[in-house]
Amino acid sequence: MLGRLILIRTKKLYSVIILMLIMLWGCGADSNLVGELFTPSILSKFSSVCGGGANTNSAPYNGTGKTHLIVLLNSSGDVHKWSDDLPADWWPNSEQDVELVACLDKERVSRIQRCSYSGGSDIERFRLTVDVTLREAQTGNIVASMSFYGSSPRQCKLVEDESTTRLVGGHVQVSDVMNWLESFVKS
What we know:
Elements: H1 2-9, H2 14-26, H3 40-43, E1 70-74, E2 100-104, E3 108-115, E4 123-136, E5 142-149, E6 166-168, H4 174-185
């Protein structure tokens, strides 16, 4: 289990991963300790799920009674950067363990207001949003979807500096997405 936890938290450092795998296998450790899911060939088997495709080798999702293992992908089907933030007990050990796929769209910028000023430029206020669709890995069916919003930008002031043309709120918080996913993973 220690080898798996180290792999999860350092997977962006490929040289460390390769060294660790060599050490684990070189010392006679069970290769299942690390889990096969972290190889690109296994993850690529889930890339079609975000588009409604299915992975028939996956475990069925029934929504009750246990921890339902999950992978996070972006809308292109690649591993999402927030995968590192998943709790270790949510990670599957193999393709057959995966029940859920969370598909996260790219963070988008939406205009929420235009403030007009006489004798100067308008100021536009923007909010950042991430849409998440949770799908069953085995069928590609949608389990749930939710839009997450970053913090709002400040309000327009009565008098603004002429150079100010844009106000943008904060990024979507990974903790908000993880808290929402928990209700499905830990049902």
